[in-house]
Amino acid sequence: MKSLLICLILCATSVIASAQNRTLEQVRFDTARLLFENPDNRAVRFRYAKVSYHTGNYRAAKFHLLELMRTSKAADDLALLKRVHGTVVETAPLSFGLNLSILPSTNISRTSSNQIFDTLAGTFRIVGGGQEESGVGLRFGGRMSYETVLPNDGGTLTYSAALNRNQYPVDRLNSYDGTLSVTWGQHGLRGTTQITPYVFRNFYDQAGPQNADSTRIGVNASYEHYLTDKSSITGTISVENRNYDGLDYLDGPVLSLGASYTGPVFDQSSLGFGIQTTHSKPTRAHLQYTGISLWGEITMPVYGMGTLGLNASLGGRNYDGKFPALTKARQDRFASLGISFSSARIRVWDTIPKLSCQIEQNQSNVALYEYKSKDCALTFVQNF
Question: Which residues pair with 381 in a beta bridge?
Fold first, then answer.
C-alpha cells in the first residue's frame, strides 16, 4: 500500500511538471506571436526573454535581452537589463556552434586570366594562365564560447575557441585553421564597445620549403554608436602581425580602419554601407601596399518567403616598391556584385541555410594578378 501511494505521488508530480512545461511553452509560443506582430513593444520582448529563460531557451533569452539593452533610454532600465542578462549568463555560460559551407567557384585557385607575363628579362608563359579551374570547396568546423559577467560595470568577457577544416579539389589549398580569442564587451546608453585580442593559426596539408603556414596575432576594436533604435554607425580598428613559417618575405604588420552605417530604408528593408582602408607592410617593399574599399548592401523581404540581399564592393591597392623584373609598382583594382537569400521557412538540421553568390574581378598592371571568378556559398550555422 505504501509503495502504491509513493508511486501515485511521483506520477502526480510528473504530470503537474509536464503540465507546467506545456503551459510555459504555450506562453512562449503566444508571446512569440505577439512579438512578431509588435517588434517594437519592449514589454512583450522582455516577457519573451523571461519565458525563454524559464523554458531553458537561454540563447533566445540572451539575444532579446541584448536587443532591449540596445534600445534602452534610461540608466536604471539599462542597469536592470544588465542584471537580468547576467543571471542568464551565469545559468548558461557555455555555448557551442557548428558550421558548414559548400563553396562552388569557377576559379578556386584565383588563377591569372592572362597567359603571358612580359618582363625586362623577357616574356614568360604563366603556368595555368587563362585556364581557370572550377570546383567545389568545403569549410566546416565548430566553436565553443564561455561567457562571464564582470562584477562592477556589467560588462562581459567571452572566451572563444574555433577550429575549421578547408577542403578543396586542389590539394595545395587544403588546410586547417584555429582561433583563440577573448572579447570584452560593454553596453552603454549610446552604444556598444567591443575589444578582441586573438591568435589565429593556419596550417596546410602540403608542407615544404615554401610553407605557407602562418600565425597571426592581433586585436580588433569596435564601437557602435546608436543613432536611433534601428540605425547606427560603427567604427573599427584592427592591428595584426603576421608570421609565416616558410615565406619570411610576407611577415609583417597589417593595420585596418573602417567605418559603416546600417539602418532602415523603404518598407521593412535595411541598408548598410561602409569604407575600409588597409595598410600592409611585409618585409619585401614590392609587397607593401595601402588599399581602400567601399561596400554596400540592401536587404529586403520577398513576399513573406524570406530575405533577399543585394551587395556590391569596389576598391584598389597601391603597392610601394617596384615589382621584380618590371619598371613599375603594382596597382590592383577590384570589384564585386553579389546576391543572397535566406528563409525562415526552410530549415535543415535545425538551421536556416543561406545561399549567396557573387561575381568578382581583379584588374592589375601585373599580369600575374589579374583574375575573375564567380563564387557561391551555401552556409549552415547551428548554435546550441
Answer: 99
Determine contact, residues 158/194, Cβ cutoff 8 Å: no
Burial of 284 from C-beta contacts in 10 A (0-12 / 13-18 / 19+): middle
Q: What is the pLDDT of residue 22?
A: 57
Region 157-183: what's the mean pLDDT? 96
Burial grade of 127 (CB within 10 A; 0-12, 13-18, 19 or more):
exposed
Query: Quick one: pLDDT band at residue 3, thresholds 50, 70, 90?
Result: very low
pLDDT at 375: 97
pLDDT value, residue 341: 96
Are the C-beta atoms of 206 and 171 separated by less than 8 Å?
A: yes
pTM confidence score: 0.88
Question: Cα-atom radius of gyration of the chain, to the nearest Å?
Answer: 26
189-192 contacts, C-beta under 8 A, 24 or more apart: 189/72, 189/73, 189/74, 189/75, 189/78, 190/225, 190/226, 191/223, 191/224, 191/225, 191/226, 191/232, 192/70, 192/223, 192/224
**Model pLDDT for residues 79-119, shown as the tens digit of each residue:** 999 999 999 999 999 999 999 999 999 999 999 988 888 88
Cα angle vertex 54, ends 53, 58, to 5°?
25
**Share of residues in the chain with pLDDT > 70 (%):** 94
Spell out the residues 6+ positions from residue 334 whose beta carbon is closer than 8 angstroms to its own.
293, 313, 314, 315, 316, 317, 360, 361, 362, 363
